[in-house]
Amino acid sequence: MEEKPIRWNIIYVALMASLVVMIVLFYWLTVSFA
Amino acid sequence: MSTLDWIVLFGTLISIAVYGIYKTRGSKNLDSYLRGRNSMNWWTIGLSIMATQASAITFLSTPGQAYEDGMRFIQFYFGLPLAMIIISVSFVPIYYKLKVYTAYEYLEQRFDLKTRTLTALLFIIQRGLAAGITIYAPAIILSTLLGWNLTWTNIFIGILVIVYTVSGGSEAVSITQKQQMTVMMGGMILAGIIVVQLLPISFQEAIHVAGKMEKLNVVSFEFDFADRYNIWSGMTAAVFLFLSYFGSDQSQVGRYLSGQTLTQSRMGLIMNGFLKIPMQFVILFIGVMVFVFYQFIQPPVVFNQVQTDKLKESEYAPQFEILESKYQESFESGKLAYQEMLTAIQAGEEENANVIKGRIQDLKAKQREIREEAKALILKNDPAAETRDTDYVFMRFVMDYLPKGIVGLLFAVIFSAAMSSSASELNALGSTTVIDLYKRSVQKNASDHHYVKSSKIFTAFWGLGAILFATYASLFENLIQAINLLGSLFYGTILGVFMVGFFMKWVKGQAVFIAALFSQAFILLIHFQNGTGLLGFHWDIGFLWYNAIGCLTVMLFSLLLQPIIGNKTAKE
Q1: Domain that holds residue B315
Q2: ipTM of this predicted complex?
Q3: Scanning B48, B429, B534, B553, which has its CA 20 to 30 A from the CA of B464?
Q4: How far apart are CA B170 and CA B250, in angstroms?
Q5: What are the tens digits of pLDDT across the range B431-476?
Q6: Residue B542 within any structural domain of the chain
Q7: Mind telling me how many Å the CA of B231 is from chain A's nearest CA?
Q8: What are residue B261's phi and psi, to 5 degrees?
Q9: Could you tell me if A10 lies within 8 Å of chain B, comparing CB atoms?
Q10: Rounded to a whole number, what is the distance in Å from the CA of A26 to chain B's nearest CA?
Q11: Is residue B508 part of a domain?
């Protein structure tokens, strides 16, 4: 089965970016309702 | 539980097992039995990886932990995405290139037979013992909640898993995990929606209550070596733990080696990287919402109902009744205080809200005292009773307040979680025993059919062993703690050996073997002197750090030893 080449670097960056976004959201949740 | 619940529970569990057996029927060669014909697409792999990691305890304990301690536990998973990337870049391509069945097979090709056998043995000892706990830990809670006999609960979980794991091999494990994970995710999301709808206050008010009561403490920037729940431990020490678990533990490696291609396996891992934290967030958040619910609807004094029922029939019943009425009184005052606090928050009177919060905290302290007194009574009545009830919080709530049918589904979630992690363990134990020990060192030149048969026998052997262990586990509580610890003591060293293999190409077998033995001794020294220290040095380190220390010690000593030992490789 032929697979389209995947631009892994973009996926890896997206994964780490999603982590950063989650941490920012979690931080907001932590401080805004305390 | 109602008849509908029983139908949902047994219907779900049995149909998944039967489906797994049916889809994978027919004769198999070793490749299809241990690697599932390399037929898995990325999302099946992703779900399979997640289902392997999500044990029954994940769903039983995590909401209870959020109920008691808030959401800070989630920080432990912050290292997971980075670990997924490292494994996807360095580990998986090599496993694919060498076409290995097990992770340990790689170590012989890279180093020598003794390094492979040592790590395979460490894995077998650790997982072989842990497989019993994977069944026992949830069985003890489920048998209490359902009023079942513990031994029969162990046998029910164990036999169902053994039947499809032995019959269909790795492919059956992946296929059933896909269904089980769907049940788990669906069940928990449904539970989350229902909890929020059952709240006697609005969702926004619930968030304020949770925040004020310090349950939304998701991120902490304070660093402490002994505490694993802060962002720094999560981003550093936990990365090492996840690298060893996903990169060198066969119960996970076996999952992604069943992929159609390298790309599919990598995507499965990345899917896990994207979904794991949100999934844990949902589970913890449900626990927090259950906490808020119980601030307005009175909770039981102790969540383990079997124990409180026993107490009510004992000579301590009058004392317990007094405690119950004290608890109710305190609860009612708390409920009123919460209403006042919410009114203050809505009016923007932050200072006033904080004063009321202080009052609520005092009431909570009082309630904790009452709970402790009740637990002391339980112990007086039955000295062998388990009084820690956090694991019962969520399922007690489910049984008391969720609609018919959904209760059965939530029990199916817990059983599915127990079965899915157990299946991966048994499959990995079977394949490691056959590939790394039996086929490599005992019976080297038998037919393919012979090895398939021996894989089935060993899988069943480990499964039956796990049931047997689970049945007698209550007799050796201390051993269970020791086994849980065993994982963190060995993981770092095993990971170190793999890291040297992947990243320090010039280091050969002899150097890494000695470095591994040294590192293991070093970790044991750190562990047994933890809290006290040695030779004037003092240390107090959380066990999460053992992984990082073990791994780095192997790498450092390999680096130092290689020039001394030279290229005397011990290839056999």
Answers
A1: 305-388
A2: 0.92
A3: B48
A4: 12
A5: 999 988 888 888 888 888 898 899 999 999 999 999 998 888 776 6
A6: yes
A7: 9
A8: -140, 170
A9: no
A10: 6
A11: yes
